[in-house]
Amino acid sequence: MDSISCPASCPNKPMTPFSSLRELSQALRRGDCTSLELTEAALGRARRLDEALNCFITLDEEQAVADAKAADLRLRDGSAAPLTGIPLAHKDLFCIEGWRTTCASRMLANFTAPYTATAIARLQAAGSVTLGKLNMDEFAMGSSTETSHFGPTANPWAPQYTPGGSSGGSAACVAAGITAAATGTDTGGSIRQPASFCGVTGLKPTYGRVSRYGMIAFASSLDQGGVFARDAEDAALLLSAMAGFDPRDSTSSAHRDPWLESVPERGIGEPADPILTIGLADELFGEVSEGAERIEAARQALEALGCRCRTVSLPHIRTAMPAYYVIAGAEASTNLSRYDGVRFGHRCERPESLRDLYERSRGEGFGAEVKRRILTGTYALSAGYFDAYYLKAQKIRRLVAGDFAAAFGEVDLLLAPTTPGTAFRRGELTDDPVAMYRQDVCTIPVNLAGLPAISLPCGLHQGLPVGVQLIGRHFDERRLLQASAALQRATDWHRARPTLAEAS
Amino acid sequence: MNPGWEAVIGLEVHVQLATRSKIFSAAANQFGAPPNSLACPVDLGLPGVLPVLNEAAVRMAVKFGLAIGAEVRRRCSFDRKNYFYPDLPKGYQISQLAAPIVGPGRLEVPLDDGAAIEVRIVRAHLEEDAGKSIHDAYAGQTGVDLNRAGTPLLEVVSAPDLRTPEQAAACFRQLHSLVRYLGICDGDLSQGSMRCDANVSVRPQGRKALGERTEIKNINSFRFVEKAIRFEIDRQIDRLEAGLPVVRETRLYDASKDETRPMRGKEFSDDYRYFPDPDLLPVAIDEAFIEAARAELPELPAARRRRFQEALGLSEYDAGWLTRDPDTADYFAAAARTEGSHAKRVANWIMGELTARLNREGLTIRAAPVTAAALGRLIARIEDGTLSSKTAKTVFDALWGGAGEVDAIIDARGLKPMRDTGELTGLINDIVARHPQQAEQFRAGRDKLLGFFVGQAMKATGGKADPRQVNELLKEALGSGIDGSQP
Known about the structure:
The complex is a heterodimer of chains A (504) and B (487).
Chain A: H1 21-30, H2 35-53, E1 56-59, H3 61-77, E2 87-91, H4 118-125, E3 129-134, H5 168-175, E4 181-186, H6 192-198, E5 201-204, E6 224-229, H7 232-242, H8 258-266, E7 277-281, H9 282-285, H10 292-304, E8 308-312, H11 320-335, H12 354-365, H13 368-381, H14 387-408, E9 413-417, H15 433-437, H16 444-449, E10 453-461, E11 464-471, H17 477-490, H18 499-503
Parallel strand pairs in A: 2-3, 7-8, 7-9
Antiparallel strand pairs in A: 1-3, 4-6, 5-6, 5-10, 9-11, 10-11
Chain B: E1 5-16, H1 41-44, H2 55-67, E2 75-76, E3 79-82, E4 92-95, E5 105-110, E6 116-128, E7 132-138, E8 141-145, E9 152-158, H3 165-182, E10 194-204, E11 214-219, H4 222-241, E12 250-254, E13 259-262, E14 275-276, E15 283-284, H5 287-295, H6 301-312, H7 316-323, H8 326-337, H9 343-361, H10 372-383, H11 389-400, H12 406-412, H13 421-434, H14 436-443, H15 449-460, H16 467-479
Parallel strand pairs in B: 11-12
Antiparallel strand pairs in B: 1-9, 1-10, 2-15, 3-4, 3-14, 5-6, 6-9, 7-8, 10-11, 12-13
């Protein structure tokens, strides 16, 4: 394993690629290492591993080093924030000024963003170093990071397997020890499913918690930015930097959370009431085909901590998946209309007419899965079909949200599988879109309801990580993350490391 | 129009709201800047950008709703209208379909003959304007200017309550007047600040069922509204009388040929796939917001017209003419308020001399070199007999040229009337003495010759004498027999 050079006088254990954010932050503040050392180590590791993993679309050594030097100045003059000097990598659908921002699409392969997404601007303002932009499914549409125009990302646990998706590059980057944390987005499971597949902690905050400004839209009413990290405490630390009302996003919440704001100073804290009632989402357990025994182990660990578990029913949840694909497709079909070859993005050669310009630019610029979603979404919004599809899907959405609200009348958190099984092989589901869509059957209902949820590693099944999902009430990230941290203090599943990274 | 037919007309008027920034972005809402210099990332529809509603646009829409006695919706929402066009950056327009901000209301429309009709307003909704496609700047290519993209529009939809082209033009004019009064639109038709679409159909006189309609798009002057609709009515009647159907279509008015013709080129889909915009939350408008907007409402044209008639004694025509444009009405009110002024005379001067001069020089009344106060003082000097209509015009011209204050001009040019009867009497006696023949004839009964003597006297005084005084003195001089022949 790599270790990061550490002054000879350093009495502390050396930083490793798998050090947590908190460890790195302390080391930087103590002067055990510099941001430049951390950044160069991360760049080196990225270069060594990325040939096999392909988790980066863009690595920019020059900008990263410049960020690191600026961070080192802040560290020296005492104006450092908790994230100052820590290298992070971002899903390539966050616009960052001066950075190529592709959404893993040929459509935007040469698009350089002229402005920075609010969530990233906040992480940068907190002092983090931007190492690079991470691979994903094209326009976040997919569950395997195989629809990327820049090629698939490998799962660090087994290169012939997918890392999940759409934020597969982010999950692989953290799992492989390149950065301690990374950003992602979750529309139907795009943070939690890859976190589960790659054995890392993945947090999807409450809808409205993190600004969507500058986050390239897939489905506006479902998209939510979040994080991949080594554990729940690190996730809380990152969230506290990213979250908050943004006047440029009308759907961002003005709800202030003093607890979240205090995390950098005081840490995640202990739950006010450690004896939680945890609901087991009955219908979702029925979806599990692999790793059920690991989820059961997580349940037992929570009970051992004093939580009371009971089964709850979410009766409408079986209708969530079709409703999701109607709503997400409908929103995507118009969100992606702006990619028309007129102002930016891919433009076909020598268009013969306006119609030809549109048809070929979009035909060439978008991949098959994106086209499939645009077509189904357009269909769902068309005159004569609107009521039967879009309106009905919205009704289902309200029923699903109602199921969760009823459950949260009785329990504090919900426990569910993150995915039906462990990571699948590359190419295994490419020809079966519905089987691919089923990857998100346990995560989609949460997006429909706009709730916060986290996927936590809970051990291995046949050598591949299994994740378990905890779901909280709206804006109750506090209880969600405190319970997750308690579980992680009592277990060591989140410390499991893939062998690929060890071997490099 | 053929007497056997009746036209049914409804208008959709797009009003560009005079907000400082655009409806969903912070870019300036301004006309005439270099192409694309006022298009920010939101207006360009760049990946990742989001709309944020401009509260000022909401306030303006609420004011409009209150002014037409409409229900202001407590909860309105925005929808996406989807179609592809190069000057529509996002591939959809944010508009309001399901829940417009302004519900049904009524507009009183005064007609030229002094009568008025009431036109129902079905709804008014907020939306964003598109950019502009420029087809004639580059050979074989189309330029796109997105400065206008995101300009707030209030689309006002009338019921099909209009029956003649004149009524339609009057309705457009009244809406123009109303939004100018409310201060929510600059009303500059030449810059596209208000654009009118007209839905036109005809039916045999007396029939209830509506005929098939056509829509004439983007008419940008009062006169063209009237002409375009007149042409379209005649065209539809000609077709029906020839046994041909009217085809439901969108047409454009070509002012240079004075005709409408089917619109072509734009590949608009019939199915706009409207659905609620997930980037914008429904807008809740509370009582306090509405009351604050109500408190800011100015006196509206109808009320002002009545006040000018009742309090200032103007005729219906004059009051209507002067209140159509708020700047004109303000100008009139200020001039009429000046001490010693006279409302009716002020009205005549504004509608005559001032307007003629403004039109000749292409100026708006706001830019008039003669201020309302100056015109008021000028009128006061006519009223008190200091100025004759002739000298008043001289003073007006001097004011226009920037020569200073009314009384100063009168002094500087020696325009004060000769009030000194001694001097004037001498002058008049002199004139009578120099024209013994005419004096004799006058005394013999040729009364008309008084005019000759008045003319001579005015000439001799350079127009400064008060004609009434001159008359009296002349009669005295001629009647008393004081002339050169009988010393």
